[in-house]
Write a structure and sequence with these properties.
By secondary structure, this protein is of the alpha/beta class. Helix 17 links the parallel strand 11 (about 400-405) and strand 12. About 40% of the residues are buried. Arginine (ARG) binds near residues 199, 389 and 404. Arginine binds near residues 194, 236 and 386.
Amino acid sequence: MLTSLTLLVPPAPTSPLLTFNRLSHFPFSPSISAASSASDLLRVVSRRLVLATKTQSITTMATQEEECMGSVKAQLAKIFEASLKVTVPNEPDVEPLIAACTGKFGDYQCNNAMGLWSKIKGKGTQFRGPPAVGEAIKNNLPTSEMIESCSVAGPGFVNVVLSKNWMAKSIQKMLIEGIDTWAPMPPVKTAVVDFSSPNIAKEMHVGHLRSTIIGDTLARMLEFSKVKVLRRNHVGDWGTQFGMLIEFLFEKFPNFEDATETAIGDLQAFYKASKLRFDSDPAFKERAQQAVVRLQGGEEKYRRAWAQICEISRTEFHKVYQRLGVHLEEKGESFYNPYIPGVIEGLMKQGLVEESQGARVIFIEGVNIPLIVVKSDGGFNYASTDLAALWYRLNEEKAEWIIYVTDVGQQQHFDMVFKAAKRAGWLPQGDNSYPRASHVGFGLVLGEDGKRFRTRNTEVVRLVDLLDEAKSRSKAALIERGKGEQWTEEEIESTADAVGYGAVKYADLKNNRLTNYTFNFDQMLNDKGNTAVYLLYAHARICSIIRRSGKDIEELMNKGTLVLEHKDERDLGLHLLQFAEVVEEACTNLLPNVLCDYLYNLSEIFSKFYSNPECKVIGSDKETSRLLLCEATAVVMRKCFNLLGITPIYKI
Ligand code: ARG
């Protein structure tokens, strides 16, 4: 029972940090702004981090006990932690190492024995080797209704077989209380996800599409974990190219307010034409350079022309976001511009900025080129902006985790910016402590020829066209399957949206983001294999099983009982229960493909259960329990879709 466990855990709030809970568990920010110098700040941050890292598992657990949930892995960790305290009382800080296992000996394994043995041997221990340590860990486990049996294997691995009753009860509890009770609990309150971030007047390319899709998923996972997420569109809306664009605008539209989207047409073509003019006409170039100065000096007419160009681009970007159902808040490069001088001055005062060939730079250990923070002409650049943005996010927005989603090509840039921030004491030294900055890199999108993705005859791929094609193909498939006669126009449209855009997203997310992936409509829209179409249909099928039963599922949840007797039922139940730790892993390691793998396996395991004649659902004497299992599968699948930004469908 859990009560006996409580006795084994050391008395709680002796240290102030043991009291921090979900609501106040990351109290860095106020102290950060109160710190008077970088070294003060560093001390505050690192002290809190050490404490936070140490106490985090305890905190998470205390909260879990309150909420009675948390992942299976975390709950087992809590039980094993209690055993470890008794088994090796002189080793107080041993983190329980718990892993799910696929072998036939158990569902989970505790792998602490070997590591512990190497720590304690020669220190006068009574144990005779890792198996004995494992045996003691097993024997010291407090009784828990979670565990059915334990055994020790090989060099001290403690295998755990979960109790079927406990598993069934936990799933039913989730059905009643909602899937939110299975959300991860990352140790941060506020995060910035900097994603999508195309450049004004330039092409929004497939790289930006990847960033949009991956960033949205990461934001969704954090939001599900009750983190406040600032979804930042760091658009490239500042820089010297605007002089050229503005001058060209004045030239083409003497009354520049008339230059609407329809008048300009394609802003990319406009950009190209103005660049041509810039490169070939010295007088124009001169005027363009003047225009930048006047724009940056804040001259009204120039600001308005700039704003207009931004607005036209924005309308174009919006079409993509609207199709994908992605929400972003724009804070472009221009927003941080006023902060740059102060931030650089601060870094200079700390002695971090040096002079190199007329430019001001920060040298970074292990990198042979320095980070240029002021160009030799006195202007600021991409790096200056990113430093100011990072400063702002940490100090003004009080973000504890700042996540940047761009192609891997920008990895070095972010690596240097983060290292500079560490030198400045804005971020702690260790990579796993908070506040933390993470670069989420991704590979290229390739065409079927294995080269960078392009459409047949044009240079660039218009993202809107690409998405429209996904939708129209999925609509055609629906019509082909005779849905035109059975469904309303609206149903066809919304299903085509869900399937088409879902397919594009899933094809991207299912790969490890660091690898390049090949864009192929036929593959992503296939209704077999690991595709969104297959998964969406699998979900719709489950919904139709429940509908066909004619039962009120709410009533079954509250009055019926879920049991996991058959092996296929138990396998499905176990997989459902692992949802919490999988999302946690996907979120901690910023890897959406982990969640995709889980979802695909879920539908496979469900099929195995459902197609087994021994597990007949409708009309069997286990109907209630099995319908509840179907419902739990549908609920978990829907949450996966939701986290992946995919709209579920309910009928096929
Ligand atoms: N605008 C950049 C690009 O298109 C991406 C910006 C990413 N975010 C950042 N804070 N640098 O490559």
